[in-house]
Design a protein that fits this description.
InterPro entries: HepT, NT_sf. This protein is mainly alpha-helical. The chain is about 60% helix and about 5% strand. The chain contains 6 helices and 2 strands. The chain has a two-stranded antiparallel ribbon. Helix 3 crosses helix 4, helix 3 crosses helix 5 and helix 5 (about 115-125) packs across helix 6 (about 135-165).
Length: about 160
């Protein structure tokens, strides 16, 4: 697939999912990519998850969507943290590390200021095995009332970091 085709496909997906911003990172952004290097992009869309604040949290469709959006947003967040730690802080001892290791290092580097990210990791892991929406029902209010704000705070940190670079 050519670069133009990739851009066209990403643009379609962004329009479909109402993405706010697409950020290219990794070897292609640093212009160190090889012929077979993958394309690393981050898509900001926390607002979609925040929409749950205006929805009926007892509706199974809303619960399912909130669970999926939370998990995706969490996974993108910790992977962006990992890239920032490696690229901008030159912290490489955990490159193949788990989300838990990345969160610990991100906390030490002040990328995140709240240990609630460890709670978020636990919830995300539990949601992977939530086949009847019971786990999301138990955690939906904390996702909506606390975790969304932590995603926004991290987004602000990333934007501030981009300004410094």
């Amino acid at each position: 697939m050519s670069a133009e085709e990739v851009i066209e496909e990403v643009a379609k997906l962004c329009k479909l999912f109402h993405a706010k911003e697409v950020i290219l990172y990794g070897s292609r952004a640093k212009e160190t990519a090889r012929e077979r290097s993958d394309i690393d992009i981050a898509v900001t869309g926390v607002d979609d998850l925040a929409e749950a604040k205006q929805r009926n949290l007892s509706d199974s469709f809303v619960l399912s969507g909130t669970s999926a959006k939370f998990s995706i947003t969490f996974d993108l967040s910790w992977k962006v943290m990992k890239d920032i730690l490696v690229q901008y802080y030159a912290i490489t001892g955990f490159v193949a590390g788990s989300p838990r290791e990345v969160l610990r290092e991100a906390y030490k580097a002040n990328l995140i200021s709240d240990e609630s990210w460890m709670e978020m990791l636990k919830v995300r892991n539990e949601l992977a095995h939530d086949y009847d929406c019971e786990i999301v029902k138990k955690n939906c209010h904390v996702i909506v009332e606390k975790y969304i704000d932590l995603f926004y705070a991290f987004e602000d940190t990333v934007k501030a970091l981009k300004m410094e670079i």
